[in-house]
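Reviewer comment 2.1 asked that we show a complete input and output for one of the modelled complexes. We chose the flavin mononucleotide case, as it is the one discussed in the main text.
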Amino acid sequence: MSRVLALKSSILGDYSQSTKLVEEFIKNVDQDKLTVRDLAANPLPMLDFSVATALRATEDLSQDQQSIVDLSNTLIEEIKAADTLVIAAPMYNFTIPTQLKNWIDLIARAGVTFTYTENGVKGLIEGKKAIVVTTRGGIHKDAATDSMTPYLRTVLGFVGITDVEFVYAEALNMGEDAAAKGISEAQSQLAELV
Ligand SMILES: Cc1cc2nc3c(=O)[nH]c(=O)nc-3n(C[C@H](O)[C@H](O)[C@H](O)COP(=O)(O)O)c2cc1C
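Response of the prediction step:
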């Protein structure tokens, strides 16, 4: 398999379904071709005035601002070093985990991962495939309640990652049989993508 960056984002630790699915998917990837980042175990700073200004500053950075820029650069390098991104995206309160949003806020950088041209925005990260593993207690695929998948497609496309595949594990809180079916469908979808 190609070089993989795996992002875990569940807050549920060992109980997480998305983490299990991602781990199953990456178990055959060579260790030297794999980077795993657990965004819940090792949370990134939340976008606030200080982080936003650090990411936009061009000179005279304070030490704190420089460390934010260094972290953002590391996250972007991790994407660039990978061919495939596997992103766990559980649904919490109809959207992605805050921890995953924090990652997005640190990698969406004007002049670094996207730029505006006369023809509109241009993503600067090219040639990547993203597989998003989304786990839900209910069923939302293709419904108005699933605003997180269009959002992820938009924001990944914004930085140039336009080849995005969604793997759904749904109905996980709708009884044992429904949950088993939801997991097994996601596993089959992932097996096809290996
Ligand atoms: C705080 C919280 C909020 C949740 N919100 C939703 C929701 O809005 N819609 C839904 O279908 N399931 C919801 N669930 C159920 C999760 O999507 C489900 O437990 C899923 O397995 C989470 O992925 P994970 O196990 O990888 O954390 C929520 C669960 C938690 C803990």
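The domain at 4-192 is CATH 3.40.50.360 (Rossmann fold). We note this here for comparison with the apo prediction described in Section 3.2.
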